[in-house]
Amino acid sequence: MSVEKEMTAGRNDIGNYSTKPNLQNDLFDNIIGYEDIKKLFFLSFESQRPIHILLVGPPASAKTLFMLGCMKLERSYFTLGTHSTRSGMVDYLFEKRPRFLIVDEIEHMSIRDQTVLLSLMETGIIAETKFMKTRNTQLKTWVFATANGTNHLLTPLLSRFMVLHFKQYKFENFLDVSIHMLGRDGIAKDIANQIADQVWHKMKSKDIRDCIKIAHLAKTKDDVNFIVETLLRYGKISNSTDDKKQS
Question: Which is more confidently placed, 223 or 244?
Fold first, then answer.
């Protein structure tokens, strides 16, 4: 089935999503760059056999944005690794039969909980014995996931993924992404530019989320300066420095 037919105003546990005529521009339209990875995802969507993709890298490197894009696909199910249990996932797989299973921060799943994915990703078969009763089914499900690292993932599980490693943003990338993301929220380019510059150089943060938090509070450049100075004054780095002086 063509991926264009897979797109509808899909409902999942996060909310509703509408579609636009140009699918490839819509699915990952909030991600700057990574054109090669976007193309790889679309090749996976069109594959006759599920090709599972794992994005590995530091926080705020666009991994989760790819997962949010995949949530626009019909019959998609999004879950956090920290909230995923074997029994809960098995129940959902049997009842909803998702075509796309999306797991953010999969490394936080316990080893026992990770095992439910092994057979699903290899053969599509899900089997469970509970209260002396056995049930089984076969699914055609693509698994897309993110992780900050792979040390806590089962080796057999890791081998079932096509693994892509993201690098930390450089300032130029960080600036472009910040301006793009904040622009979508109606933040003027000069304000977005200043926020990105201060978050990177003053706060020593490479997390786009810090830019978004400040942008939701600031209406002027003076507001940006005030918020950043306040965060620095009462932040962890400032407090740890003061503790050293007192000791």
Answer: 223
How is the chain split into domains, by residue range?
Answer: 3-165, 171-237
Residue 147, pLDDT score: 97
**Model confidence at 5: pLDDT above 60:** no
Q: SS3 for 122?
A: helix
3-165 belongs to which homologous superfamily?
P-loop containing nucleotide triphosphate hydrolases (3.40.50.300)
Distance, in Å, from the CA atom of 135 to the CA atom of 143, rounded to the nearest integer, reads 22
CB 107 within 8 A of CB 148: yes
Report pLDDT for 2: 39
Give CA–CA dist 120/123, Å, rounded: 6
Contacts by residues 140-143 (CB-CB < 8 Å, ≥ 24 positions apart): 140/50, 140/99, 141/50, 141/93, 141/97, 141/98, 141/99, 141/100, 141/101, 142/44, 142/45, 142/50, 142/51, 142/52, 142/99, 142/100, 142/101, 143/50, 143/52, 143/101, 143/102, 143/103, 143/117
CA distances from 153 to 52, 93, 109 (A): 15, 21, 8
